[in-house]
Amino acid sequence: MRIAGIRALTLALMVPPLISRGDAPFHNLVSSENRVPSTAFAHFQPDPAEPPLPPETLRELVTVEHGTLPIILSVPHGGTLPIPQAVERQGRGLSDFQTVRDAWTAELAAACVIELERQLRGKPWLILARFDRKFLDVNRPAERAYESRSAKVVYEYYHRSVAAACQQVRRRWHCGLLLDIHGQGEYPEAICRGTLNGRTVRRLLDCHGWAALVGKHGLFGYLQRQGYKILPDCLADVKTREISNYQGGYIVATYGSHTDYGIDAIQVEIGLRLREQGRWRQTARDLATAIALYTEEFLSP
Ligand SMILES: [Zn+2]
C-alpha cells in the first residue's frame, strides 16, 4: 500500500512548488469566527439525497496507515485530488481562508515514515490527505473547513482517523507524539515550531521540560544542531513566543496533551527551500532521525 502511495506521490513531482502562507493560528481562528457573518455559508446547501462517498473513495482521498509506534504523522495540505461532487471553496467572509497546497509535504512525510521504520524497526501512524485543499481544509473547525456535503464526509473521516490513532496510542503507550506536517514560504530556510506556545505539549513539558523540544537531545534541538534554522531559535528564552502565523492550528489544538486525547501535538511548518527540488528527501531523513532520537529518549518505557 505504501509503495503504491509513493508511486502516486511521484506524479506530484511534476507540479511546480507553491508558496503557502501557512495556517492561521488557532487563537486567530477563534477570534475571526466571531467576525464571520451568519450569511457566510449561505451558499452551502447540503443535499440530503446526495449519496455518501463509498469507503474505497475515502481510502483514496485519505491514506491511513496503522502504526506500531507511539508516533502519529498528520499531513493535511499536501494533496492534489478532487473530491467527487464537491465544489471548490469560496471562503466568503473568512479572513483566514487558504487553498494553497503545502507542496512536497506528502512526499516528505512518506519518506519520513520509511526512514523511521528503518531506524526504529516499527511503523508510525500516518494520516495523509490526498485531496486538494481547494475542496477541504481539515486544519479548520468544521464550520470553516468545507462547503459541500461530500467534503464534509471526508473531513469527518480524516478526523475520525486522527482521533482513533490518538486513542490507540494513548491506550497502549499512555503517551505519544502527534506531528502535524505543513509547509510555509514566509521563512523559506526555516522550520517553525507550533505548540500554541507550549499548550499542546503540556504533558511533555510537565514530564521533561523544554529540553525535550529545544535541548541537545530535543526534537528541534537536534535539527538545529544539524544546521537547520528553527523558529523560535532553540537557544532563545523558553518564554519566546512562537511565530503567530505558525504557532499551531485546529489539529494540534484539538488533539494536544492539554485535551482529553492527551497526546503531545506539534505543528511543524517546513520552509520552502527545505522541500523544493528534491531537498525534501534530506529534510525527511533528518526529521526522522530527530523523531527517532526523541522516541528513544522520551517515549521509551
Ligand atoms: Zn498547511
List the helices and strands and how they pair.
Layout: H1 2-12, H2 26-33, H3 55-61, E1 62-65, E2 71-75, H4 105-120, E3 125-129, H5 149-173, E4 177-184, E5 190-194, H6 202-208, H7 211-214, H8 219-225, E6 229-231, H9 250-255, E7 264-271, H10 279-299
Parallel strand pairs: 2-3, 2-4, 4-7, 5-6
Antiparallel strand pairs: 1-3, 5-7
Helix pairs in contact: 1-4, 4-10, 8-10
The site of zinc ion has 6 residues, from loops.
Keywords: Hydrolase
Protein name: N-formylglutamate amidohydrolase
GO molecular function: hydrolase activity
Quick tags:
globular, alpha/beta, binds zinc ion, 10 helices, 7-stranded mixed sheet, Aminopeptidase, 301 residues, disordered N terminus
What features would you describe in this structure?
The chain has 301 residues and is of the alpha/beta class. It has ten helices and seven strands. A seven-stranded mixed beta sheet has the order 1-3-2-4-7-5-6, sandwiched between helices. β2, α4 and β3 form a beta-alpha-beta unit. The longest helix has 25 residues, at 149-173. Bound molecules: zinc ion. Zinc ion is lined by residues 20, 22-23, 77, 102, 182. Zinc ion (ZN) is lined by residues 20, 22-23, 77, 102, 182.
The number of distinct structural domains comes to 1
Instruction: Please report the first level of CATH classification, the CATH class.
Output: Alpha Beta
The strand line-up of the biggest sheet is: 1-3-2-4-7-5-6
Tell the overall outline.
globular
CATH topology: Aminopeptidase
Radius of gyration: 18 Å
Protein name: N-formylglutamate amidohydrolase
GO molecular function: hydrolase activity
Keywords: Hydrolase
